[in-house]
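Thought: the user wants the 3D structure for the chain below. I'll pass the sequence to the structure tool as-is, report back what it returns, then summarize two notable features.
Action: structure_tool
Action Input:
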Amino acid sequence: MSALLSIKNMTHYFGGLRAVSNFSYDIPQGTIYGLIGPNGSGKTTTFNLITGIYTPTEGKIFFQDKEITGMKPYKIVQTGVARTFQNLRIFSNLTALDNIRIARHFNTRSGLVSSVLRLPSFMNEERQVKKESRELLDLMHLSSRANELAKNLPYGELRRLEIARALATKPKLLLLDEPAAGMNPKEVEELMSLILRIRNEFKVTVFLIEHHMQVVMGICEYLKVIDFGETIAEGLPEAVGKDPKVLEAYLGKRGA
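Observation:
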């Protein structure tokens, strides 16, 4: 399969510190690919480089065969790339529904004049935005929370809300940065089913960072492992999980 996202020899420095080194990864459309590694290994920096928060010191990034290296984050979202964050970026004083509506408005066409004058085209679009936002809340089992302020939602529900908000931009590639963090076992099981459903129903490719190995081994079809910014292993999850370098990185000792 051709790559939806293709990263070529990406390297990034913070001052004299090399955070990501010669990183290359091709992610085919319709797959769930994983990026794992110990804390501080460069995983979130990799996501920040893909989404335009940082510009790589070296290397190139292509999405749908178009170079996006160094593009502004909002431009990258417009191409079809959305993400969640390791540390939640929710509008805490807005309702769950409004959090999603804001993101959904990213793809609306109504301008300032039509919105101020409340023209029929604007009103029709607003009704569609609200309908689609409620459908996303339903997908995330958050319908009963639609009018609840986000700051009053428990942590697991906030995680799902952030995924819904990312989906509201109608991405082709969804980057999830530790979506299972802080979840209990039941929530983790539900999250795994949810990610698979998102991939299948929305036809979205998923690129996942996760420390929870149940999630990684349960849904990822291919894995890359990095440590201190260097790739130390990649391949099918079963093989990667037995790799001595991976065991050493996680456990601090050589595997058998």
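Final Answer: Structure generated. The chain has a mean pLDDT of 90. The chain has two domains: 1-80+171-256, 92-169.
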